[in-house]
Amino acid sequence: MNEINTHIHEMIHFDIIRLIKGGEGITFCDGKAFFIANVLPGETGTAEIFEEKPRFGRARVVERFTSSPDRRTDDSCPFANQCDGCGFRTPTHDSALRYKAQPIYDEIAKAAKIDLPPYELYPVPNDSKRQRIRLHWTNQGCGFFARLSHSIIAASACVAIDNHLRLCAKWLEENTTIAQHIKTPFHIDVQIDLDDDGNAYAAFKPIVQGDKSGTHRSGKRSNQATNKCSNQAANKRSQTEDATNRASANLSSSINSLIEEISQKAFDEKIFLGIVTPHATYGETMISSTTPAPSTFDAPSTFDAISTLSASELPCTTTFRRVGDFSQALPRANAIIHALLAQFLDDAIRTATHPLTAADLFAGSGNLTFRIATKLPRVAAYELFCAPNAFQRGVEYNANAFCPNAHPTLDLFDLNAGLPEAAKTADIIVCDPARNGLSPQLTRDICHASARFIFYVSCEASSLARDLVTLKSQFTVEKIAFIDMFPETPHVETIAILKRI
Predict the structure, then answer these.
(1) What is the mean pLDDT of the segment spanning 22-36?
(2) Which pTM was predicted?
């Protein structure tokens, strides 16, 4: 077993070669790689080792000798080097996406063992603020986790989120003190979303710690004495498990009571317009999100590259979703995805010899489905976790934006089991999966389906690269683009456009 030495105080000299995925810089000392946060390529200095393994280690900057011209000098965040809510505020806004994209691009090419076309970058305006946050409520309070720890940092000080989200975070910080009497460690996930009008909604979900008791079972014994000892041990273990289960049930009950208490108070004080808890709902349970046309933004440097994506101005589309369901965190970045998708569809339509059909996999509440319907009349959405009434509400709301005779449909289907039969004849596949990407069966099915084009939206480079290993047997990557969906973080949204060979 490789033990981690976390009590190292040795100083090393660093000369940052490049950044890796995640935003850390890499340097070498005595042949060993060390990863350092809050640095940029070309910077030098000294750092203190705080974690060391046989093949690599981590260190923190003590003194910087040279600084990159791309280093941010006016950071207004009081926790820039501590908080894991962002984690990548080191570079200037104009250079950040380039630094994030390059290691992700390299990882995809290397892991998938394919040649990729030059990438395209789509930043967002400097004043873009996130409309969704996820907080952690523990014994320490409610906020973001600090980097590489579970210490809580106040989200009310965050400069990367909408001001209304900061007010909600402040209220939670002041009111989650109702849990002070609980001494047993607990963890509650709190997701807060804003709708088009700036109203806040919250979803509270207890995070259950894995119960590792009772996972080791005795093997067979060869004599009575051993069997007797084994039975005694089993009885004792059973009693311990019963006590653990009772304690867990009591903690669960206390946590649920806490959630209902704070939810009722937050709703009464109109902090949230709607709240979903494990056992109750408060107020509105549906959120609307409108993706605006890129042309409505006053940010020429960002949108010059997509100003000619469509012959006509893109209509706005609106989705409806249940409180707590997934949504893109940044409407402005989501608008770029829509613009790229519109361009992709226009290109496909121009070269088509027959009316095209599309299948939207992992469609959610119709974020991309409704955009496709503005171009193609026949589009089917597939999603297991979507509320059908939310999807239908979106169909009715966006009817005027759809092309003539377009009637998007929704099929509740578990895509991990493979591609639905009806989707196997689609000309175009659009997919926006979760971080774990496509299942092996789904990628194989897509390879053997009729689709000539794939529009793949990914938030995780490693799963995209893994899927490309299979897809490359039938498809080539024609375009790859990175969108700054998560400003100030090391994460990006990746768009890969594939064409059948």
Answers:
(1) 94
(2) 0.86
